[in-house]
Amino acid sequence: MGGGIMNRRRTRRIPLLLSLCLVVSLLCLAPARAEAADVGAIDRVLCSLNYSPVAMMELQYVKVSTSSADCYITSAIWTDPTGAQVTGTFGTGNYTLTVTYSAAGDKVFSAGALGYINNKNDGVSVSVSADGKTATLQKTFSAEIWAPTAVKQPTSEKVSMGSWTSFAVSSTYAESHEWFFESADGKQTVPAANASAAWSGLSVTGMDSEHLVLHNVPAEMDGWKVYCRHWSVNHLNYTDTSRATISVINIPTPAPTPEFTPVPLEVPSPEPAAEATPVPTPLMADGGSDTGAETQAVPEATPAPVNRSYSYAGDSTAHWLVYDDNGETGEREEHLYVWHETRAATNEQDGEETGVCSICGQTATRPLGRQSGGSRSALGLGEKLGIDGFSDIQLLLLGGSAVCLLLLILSAALSPRRRRRRR
User: Fold this and answer.
1) Which strands sit side by side in the sheet containing 363-368, from one edge to the other?
2) β-pairing, 333-334 with 318-323?
3) What number of CA atoms fall less than 13 Å from residue 350's CA on the CB side?
4) Which of 11, 156, 316, 405 has the most beta carbons within 10 angstroms of its beta carbon?
5) To 5 degrees, how large is the angle CA 254–CA 257–CA 263?
6) What pTM did the predictor assign?
7) Which of 95, 100, 96 is closest to 127 using CA atoms?
8) Each residue of 263-298: b (16+ CB within 10 Å) or e?
9) C-beta separation of 371 from 346 below 8 A
10) What is the pLDDT of residues 251-294, one digit of tens each?
11) Are residues 248 and 165 in the same domain?
12) CATH code for the domain of 223
């Protein structure tokens, strides 16, 4: 009788202990969920720039992106020193970048979130909305001034005396251009602006552009070289192109000077000889009295047309000039592509760049390698089981409670059998 009472007391204590374990486990859940909410707040706003503003750079080449998976960019705006939005090219002075982010899913931005541009926090400010779902990042940049880059070099040209020729170049980040002529020995330099005074009859146009044209080229320019100087914004620095040689052809040969032919004197007779009458000496060609001397006329050079139109033809690797008047073609030259990104690379697919030849307009594409994604951190036991907000210890407590409850049920089921055996 006493043993049965003791068993009933033990049976009543076991549910109490199990209930106590369940209550402790539930109490542990509340801090874990609060901690998970704190961990979910975004405290770093990341921004990546491929270029900072450069004077004369087009806006389309400046790309803004973020590497954070917890938020995404909704807008990125550049404003100039007057506060107007930039839509074309950058100039000089200060430009402000304003990037707006939205938090992904149930994420929010921390009130004290810090902003980073290319992993640097200098001069970056971040403001967060009241609900924490939107953050705005700002930074002001001073536009850089790059030295010009010569994209196309001038090529040497052959020109008939009295005819015309031209030289073309191209460059990036150049605000102005200046042409020069250099002697074959490199000791003399003549600015194109003074060329008409240095060579009589020479006409020069385009001396401050990327296309220099010479008309009525004299023979004295044979062997001289020409080059272009690309000036940066505000003439802070410059880049010179390579030298191209001017070869003047079809220079007329001077007329030969008539040779002097002596005339023999008469032989005196036995009679008193009279003074021999001297035979008149033939004059030179410039005197004009000797009909026996041949004079070659100096031919005049036929001037070439003042203008000669042309167009470009090409294939996937090169381009060349085609003159409209006779179909004559120039030398093949490789394309000079200016590349820009048309599809960004991701972890799942390659990107793509499109290039446009700055001379003939030919287009081409090339792939961009995939981005290398970062590895995810190891998941906790709760995440592996698909249960959000539970730590490994809490799950173990819940599991232990479940085992205790199962043992209680088994004990209750076996107790009547044991009492019957004892009886």
Assistant:
1) 337-343, 351-357, 363-368
2) antiparallel
3) 7
4) 405
5) 165
6) 0.47
7) 100
8) eeeeeeeeeeeeeeeeeeebeebeeeebeebeeeee
9) yes
10) 887 767 666 566 565 555 556 555 555 545 444 444 444 444 44
11) yes
12) 2.60.40.10
